[in-house]
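Most newcomers find our protein records easier to grasp once they have seen one. To make this concrete, we reproduce a full record directly below:

…
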Amino acid sequence: MKNSKLLCALLGFFLGFFVQGQSLVELQEIALANNAGIQASYKQFEASLEQIPQAKSLDDPILSGGYFLQPMGTLMGEQVFKLSLNQQFPWFGTLKAKGDLVALQTEANFQDFIEQKANLELRIAEVYFPLLEIHQLMELEKKHQKLLNSIYEVAENQYENNEVSLKDVYEVEMELEESKINLQILHQQKKSKEARINALLNRSENIAIKPVPDLINEANDEVEKSVENHPALEAINLRTSAYEAQEKVAKKSALPRLGVGLEYMYLDDFSMNGMEYEGMNMFMPMLSVSLPIFTKKYKSAKKEATLLQASSQLAWEEQHQQLKAEFTESKQNISVYQSQLDLLKFKVNKTEKIMEITYNKFENALGNLDELLNVQRRLLNFEQEQLQVMTNLSIAKSKLNYLTYTAEE
């Protein structure tokens, strides 16, 4: 066990050097192929397919026999044993109704599988984009470390020339140390996000993942779709139809069952009035009809199916309202995040220009270090906020894709 864990750790470590960028779609495809929950759901669907021929099949015929310990005399001979074969048939249309019931339940299970696929894709997106944000935040911290190092060099030179105080040098050192700690925290958070994605992909948590930066804004922008064909709603619709078929089966079950059979009687030779007679074996066709006189169970079965239909319709309404509300919320969130992103882009652009002016003044001993550090912090905060909003926007678009997901996708 220890060796296997060590091997996985080494594998993840070395893969980190060679791993290429992986898009969201690529990771989703891997998850759909390997995720245990998805595979279990599909196996459930395959198992339900096997129930269709079972529902459409007749009951097994019944073969019975009897042996007389003491032959029973008849006018045709002494009866030694008899065999009978009987086959029961449900009322006309019953088997078809049962097959329709199971087929509809199977289709509902398939829609459940489709919904789980869509949900899995969303769950991966909800971790993928924060992981991408962490990667970009790490690059951002490295960029600001370079800027702080440049400020530190200028501050040291100015301190030697008595242009700034030692306090100013310490201020820059503290900023640098804080940036290094932030980078370490981001690295730990990156490992945590990678482990979550790898768990969804059903593989070792140590495998490195490098998200593709330019995909963060490539989620589907189409917002004119609706939730009407969502697989969760389709599954409920199919189960409602299945309950209607269940009611039909209950009605058919209340009708008589027909049976046909054949009985064979073996008659041995016999003697009568001193004369020997040859026994005559006999075949007897038989018909039977069940008498469904205990109707309470059939009425109860029909009522059960009716109540399940009503319950399913109410469940559809509740699910439909929930999806519509989430759809509206997602569209509003996309609009809000887009406005926030535009504002932050404007702020970053202007702050970069302010930073350039302030840095040049400080470099030429015309500016104040505190002012320069304040501008640097503002620029960093704006860029961090920009990345956060980009993440929120991408997740909101992924949520919208989930809400408008159809079986054809």
